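ASSEMBLY PREDICTION REQUEST
Request ID: AP-0331
Submitted by: J.K., bench scientist
Number of chains: two
Total residues: 226
Priority: normal
Notes: Please return the full assembly, not individual chains.
Input sequences:
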Amino acid sequence: ETGVTQSPTHLIKTRGQQVTLRCSSQSGHNTVSWYQQALGQGPQFIFQYYREEENGRGNFPPRFSGLQFPNYSSELNVNALELDDSALYLCASSLEVGGLNTEAFFGQGTRLTVV
Amino acid sequence: KQEVTQIPAALSVPEGENLVLNCSFTDSAIYNLQWFRQDPGKGLTSLLLIQSSQREQTSGRLNASLDKSSGRSTLYIAASQPGDSATYLCAAMDSSYKLIFGSGTRLLVRP
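STATUS: Completed
Returned structure:
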């Protein structure tokens, strides 16, 4: 059973550019959530996908968008990058939404630096 | 709006000491509470999950408790080791199944 994997691990982009981050969920997990973690802070919820549909969104602007694919892997896209978007982006998968199988398993994260 | 607070922000203890990390939340209507460990620059490792109907969970030297009525959870680490040095994060899952995190407690266990 493979865990949650994210790519790339590190990325440097210029302000105004666009970026796509990728996440492969743990085997059998149909729910993927994305979080942004600024230095010294706890992660902040961006959005969640359940069976390819968005299932909740945090307080992030529309330039943050996402997708979930039929194999339950996911992408996070950020347009018009700003310096404040520099952070560790974390992907988490869980077996299901609701019920007793909501334990979140996180990937190693993608460190995005916007210059 | 759910808010999660962790105290203390940082803790330094000698090896072998038993310690308690605290987590408080403002809205008792949580789905579950999860404790994580994070090493510098790395992702989160799940340590313990307590369902809202449970009072505690144990894994090895770790024990987590949950008191929904007072809005508190504690993580107890027995016989601490230098390898336990990391940031510990608690997160409350709300009714929409998203995790609300505290800012973490940075733990240093001195040899």
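REVIEWER COMMENTS: Chain B has no helices and eleven strands.
SIGN-OFF: pending second reviewer
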